[in-house]
Design a protein that fits this description.
The protein is an alpha+beta fold. It has five helices and four strands. 26% of the residues are buried.
Length: 175
Amino acid sequence: MEWNQLLAFAAEDLAVAQGKTTQTGHTGPDGSTMKTRIEKYGSWTKTIGENIAYRSWSAKSVVLQLFIDDGVPDRGHRANIMKPEFLSLGAWRSTHKTQVRETVMDYAGGMKTNGNKALVKNYECKKSTGYTWKKLPYSKPCPDSAAGKAEAAAAKAAAAKAKAKTAATGAPDSK
């Protein structure tokens, strides 16, 4: 199984939206389903699935909770973890209004982007999570993020340097 950022985006959508409510389960507060959330970011192959763990504090406790699957008669969470058709995984952990923590794990047999770059999120903007993620090649830092401020400061410094050189020599900087 390998990490898939598109599935992580779908998991984030449920974890963040549901976390603001007292709702639990696989249907989002907006009526979204696992399938609609995943298909928002791309197309999947073979099969898809979703696990949700509440109240678990560590990654290890999330996996143990889902694998032991106490109180779930069909052991569906365990089946998802062990399903050989699932080759891709994306997950997101968020706070929850009544359950304290919520971890959503989305699985697929495979996943391809739908090419809609506008939907791909830039994690420089996610101040509340404290997570740092590798930016995708077409993402740009948020203007109010540390990276965005550094980028703006560098551009401003370069412009000031070019202006000073032009003022001193009468010729613009050729670099």
